[in-house]
Amino acid sequence: MTTETSIALAIFFGGGVFVAGVAQFKPLTSWEAPADVRQSSSISEEAKDGGYAMCQQTLPGVDCSCFAQKASQVLMESRDRVRGWAYADQWELARVQATDSCS
Fold this sequence. Notes:
- The protein is mainly alpha-helical.
- The protein has helices at residues 3-22, 52-58, 64-76, 90-102.
- Helix 2 (52-58) crosses helix 3 (64-76) and helix 3 packs antiparallel against helix 4.
- The longest helix is centred in the first third of the chain and has 20 residues, at 3-22.
């Protein structure tokens, strides 16, 4: 067998193995629900009213109506999720951003 034929066969079979291997991965555009509980879309009980009651009870010096508005904006904004990435808890993110904005 000549060297050109050996190279051609190696490329042919190597390419086939490569294509078969890549075909085993899921498409990048496929979507699955988040597996982590922290990433779920359920909102805690204290966040139901935008955190207004929680703000009045635990955050002195913060404008609670502003807090509720900012927290609601963060909670209502929908974002696309990427499988395998860790995301911040929506309520924690809303609470921190609202506290910083309304202090």
